[in-house]
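**User:** Once you have settled down, spend some time on the protein underneath, comparing sequence with structure tokens, and judge whether sequence predicts the tokens.
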Amino acid sequence: PFNVYGAQQDSGADLQSSQGRYGTISNQDFRPLDVGGESGTLAPDPRHPGLIYGNSSDGNSTAVREIAATGWEQNIDPVLTSPQTLWRATWTLPIAFSPMDRTTLYVARQKIFRTRNGGRNWQIVSPDLSRPDEGTPSNLDPATLADNNDVSRHGVVYAIAPSPLRADVVWAGTDDGSIWISHNASTSSAG
């Protein structure tokens, strides 16, 4: 059996086993999670089943980890060590484990952070990937520009994807429409 994790709008995050306790999968088999909230990204620890990383459920985009069986939670947010810095965040905190190095977890704000020890220590592995001017992105097509949905851009990394082929390569997408690639998880260039 394996577990499936997901966040649900207005309903929180859940863990669901692929095998039900009573022969079929039913609502009784869903386990609510605090980590991830209603819109967050969840990153199950590949080495420790039942340990899940994600954003807090209070909407503050704080990195936390939770043991699903007990509900124990710990704030492991990388920005706690730099409170003097203005860290930007969006509702959904990008968080992902490296498929090449199962000890490596990435979290992002306007920069990408990396931990190799479950969030006890963090290292910044990218520069600020957001644009200084958060005006209209030059890469938007006319149809998108015309669709003014009043979505504000925050100047943040919105998605991260560690490479499945190279341990220190991380792809990042920012909310201004840019795609970045980080080689050796320390230098970045626009893609």
In short: The two ends are 39 Å apart (CA to CA).
